[in-house]
């Protein structure tokens, strides 16, 4: 059985075309997929909450904290990478993190 370079290249080109077609098909269906996921979100969140009590609150606190950090890094620009960065957290964010710490610690102990 002989394998030619031309044969390999033609198979790679065909695979690339198939992949491109699949990506374009997925992009067309993305809005419908997002709508389905959003429709099912309450049920999924309820199941996650059953399996991991406090997960929703932990997720929300983490997202708010990450947003504060990302905003600070973005505002500092290139200086953040070379000099480091201190980030101030407001009372609300601190209270949010403090409220989820027990659940987070309990979750971490199980893992």
Order of helices and strands: HHHH
Q: Which structural class matches the secondary elements?
A: mainly alpha
Q: Kindly, what is the distance between the CA atoms of the first and last residues, rounded to a whole number of angstroms?
A: 52 Å
Instruction: Identify low-pLDDT runs.
Output: none
Query: How much helical structure, as a percent, in the residues?
Result: over 70%
Number of DSSP helices?
A: 4
Residue share in β-strands: under 5%
- Characterize the main sheet: none
Number of strands: 0
**Mean pLDDT across residues:** 85
Shape: extended
Instruction: Compute the number of structural domains.
Output: 2
Task: State the gist of this model.
With 111 residues, the protein is an all-alpha fold. Helix content is 85%, strand content 0%.
How would you describe what is shown here?
There is one protein chain. The protein contains four helices and no strands. It has helices at 5-51, 55-76, 79-83, 91-110. It has 111 residues and is mainly alpha-helical. The chain folds into two domains: 1-51, no CATH class; 53-111, no CATH class. The mean pLDDT is 85. 85% of the residues lie in helices and 0% in strands. The radius of gyration is 23 Å and the shape is extended. Helix 2 (55-76) packs across helix 4.
């Amino acid at each position: 059985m002989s394998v030619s370079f031309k044969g390999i290249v033609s198979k790679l080109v065909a695979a690339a075309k198939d992949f491109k077609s699949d990506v374009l098909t997925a992009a067309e269906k993305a809005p419908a997929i997002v709508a389905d996921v959003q429709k099912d979100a309450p049920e999924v969140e309820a199941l996650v909450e059953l399996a991991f009590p406090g997960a929703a609150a932990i997720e929300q606190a983490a997202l708010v904290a990450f947003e504060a950090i990302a905003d600070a890094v973005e505002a500092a620009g290139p200086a953040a990478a070379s000099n480091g960065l201190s980030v101030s957290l407001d009372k609300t964010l601190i209270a949010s993190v403090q409220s989820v710490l027990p659940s987070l610690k309990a979750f971490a102990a199980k893992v």
